[in-house]
Amino acid sequence: MDLLLASTSPIRGTLLANAGVPYSAVRPEVDEAAVKAGFAGSDAGLATALAGAKALSVSRSRPDALVIGSDSIVSVEGRRFSKPGGRGQAAEHLRFFSGRSMQLTSAVALTCGETVEWRHAAEARLQVRPLTDSFIEAYLDADWPEVSYCVGVFRLEGPGVQLFSAIEGDHFTILGLPLLPLLGALRERGMLAA
Predict the structure, then answer these.
(1) Which 3 state secondary structure label does DSSP give 133?
(2) Of 32, 85, 130, 190, which is most buried with the most CB atoms under 10 A?
(3) pLDDT more than 70, % of the chain
(4) Torsion sign over Cα 20, 24, 30, 32
């Protein structure tokens, strides 16, 4: 059985490749805004719904494959954030995050055909240090447009680590893929050596 990743995220692909997981990446076709607009539950529930929707969008046309879907949600003081619509909005997000605690929830799902076989969500808390406008501009100069694809306007594996004064949570969850639970689920399904 083929293993597919319903994502074109470079970091998610790198995490799987570095862990020795053979996979192929396929772009999912999901209207994320529509899923978010109709959702009234928790961040974990929304991240899981999005991860499942992404995986199902690929597995429906590839019922012979096991498909991994994943997504992340960022909330600050109860407000959910999406990827910034442009550099100006990215700066607005960073100004709002400044000095506040960010909750990042990442979820992963496995699907086969029309069925979500497994799902998992995990949370992390990241304390954003006070950010000056000059820092925000210099930061965006250094890491734009790469951070435009990131829901929290940061890449922890890059200059984005400078946004934080403290981090609580699993490193892989923060990178957008709860990897250790996923590896366990893949072993249970015979996709990896036990």
Answers:
(1) helix
(2) 32
(3) 100
(4) positive
CA–CA gap between residue 16 and residue 177 (Å, rounded): 9
What is the rounded CA–CA span in Å between residue 72 and residue 176? 6
Rounded distance between C-alpha atoms, residue 57 and residue 44, angstroms: 20
Q: What is the pLDDT of residues 78-116, one digit of tens each?
A: 999 999 999 999 999 999 999 999 999 999 999 999 999
pTM of the shown model: 0.94
CA–CA distance, 190 with 194 (Å, rounded to integer): 8
Q: 131 exposed, middle or buried (CB, 10 Å; 0-12, 13-18, 19+)?
A: middle
**How confident is residue 54, by pLDDT bands cut at 50, 70 and 90?**
very high
Q: In the chain, pLDDT over 90 holds for what percent of residues?
A: 95
Q: Enumerate the H helices of the chain as residue ranges.
A: 10-18, 32-37, 43-59, 87-97, 133-143, 171-175, 179-188
Which positions are catalytic? 71
Q: At 122, list the tokens.
A: 């995990």
CATH architecture of structural domain 2-188: Alpha-Beta Complex (3.90)
Contact (CB, 8 A) for 111 and 183 = no
